[in-house]
3-hydroxyisobutyrate dehydrogenase (Acanthosepion pharaonis), 217 residues
Amino acid sequence: MQKGTLLMDSSTIDPSVSQEIATKAEELGASFVDSPVSGGVNAAKDRLLTFMVGGKESAFAEAKVYLDMMGKNVIHCGAVGTGQAAKICNNMLLAISMIGTSEAMNLGIKLGLDAKMLAHILNVSSGRCWSSEIYNPVPGVKEGVPSSNDYKGGFGTALMTKDLGLAQNAAINTKSPTPLGSLCLHLYRIMCNTGFAEKDFSSAFKFLQEMENRNFP
């Protein structure tokens, strides 16, 4: 590796691992930033991604030139590892909101409400969130999202489970209570063990629909 090389890691991993990599890179005369990404497949196609970047100011400035080509929001979170910290917090909240949206939509449908009408009501009311408006988990409510393609593509349930595990490890290490995050991890682990691992994480809706017909641990 040449001195002065910039290393960027956009995977979602434990912040401590990013810090270890940064230390090794510095020993070799290179610089490192953790730059996990959020936004999904459609945002990637439209170059509207959000990058959460951890690293020195000089390394961030260099990385931003490249990340600006792919994203709309490139945010410097602080030292190495803080990008990962922001990402696991974001994904924990995303999982919670997806489970909540799936529960609300499933309940409403069982109460006789039209799915598209209910989604519209949620999205002009206080229940509105990214999971209900942009990435609705009910098939047929929104075009161009995994729920309308048999939950193919998108962000896999196994990956969401991995990120929720990272969030729970961080919560334990910092003694931060995350009861809903813990419950979501439990639910997504069950999904992984019951045939949903390779499906998009919005398949939580389908999982809930099937729960009444299955025996779960």
